[in-house]
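Lecture notes, continued. The same structure-token format from the folding unit now serves as the input rather than the output. Read the line below as a description of shape only.
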């Protein structure tokens, strides 16, 4: 467009109208830009709020889970302690029983060794003294064994005689 045409149109007012329309559009664009900037600021603030809320939520979840896990660990520790205490009591009881049994066996071994010595002495006397009768030998045996009950003596003699009869 030439300068003359521009001046003619300007004179006619059509350019003025165009300019004013362009100015109105520029004003609207500037308003839109301002609105977009405000929306961007609001959106940025919303994003920041969401970040903070999600951070708080994650922290709360981890804290809650930590407490739950700690409770579970404490519960298991308590159960294991109870089991350990029960096993310790059982072991102590078994050790006591073993000690009592060992002492009883030691006592019984000492008794049997004494009886063995008496039996050896009785048998030794019986071999060296062929003059002793079966009755005397049985009486020595009963004394060595500490048998005083007549019923037990009768049962023992009958077993002895049965063994002798079987040997013949």
């Amino acid at each position: 467009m030439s300068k003359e045409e521009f001046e003619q149109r300007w004179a006619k007012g059509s350019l003025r109208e165009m300019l004013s329309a362009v100015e109105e559009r520029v004003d609207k664009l500037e308003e839109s830009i301002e609105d977009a900037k405000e929306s961007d600021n609001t959106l940025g603030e919303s994003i920041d709020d969401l970040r903070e809320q999600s951070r708080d939520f994650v922290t709360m979840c981890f804290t809650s889970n930590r407490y739950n896990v700690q409770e579970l660990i404490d519960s298991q520790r308590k159960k294991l302690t109870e089991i350990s205490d029960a096993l310790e009591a059982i072991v102590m009881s078994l050790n006591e029983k073993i000690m009592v049994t060992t002492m009883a066996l030691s006592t019984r071994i000492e008794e049997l060794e004494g009886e063995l010595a008496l039996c050896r002495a009785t048998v030794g006397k019986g071999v060296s003294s062929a003059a002793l009768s079966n009755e005397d030998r049985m009486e020595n045996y009963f004394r060595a064994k500490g048998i005083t009950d007549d019923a037990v003596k009768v049962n023992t003699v009958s077993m002895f005689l049965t063994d002798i009869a079987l040997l013949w």
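Point for the exam: The chain has one domain: 3-132.
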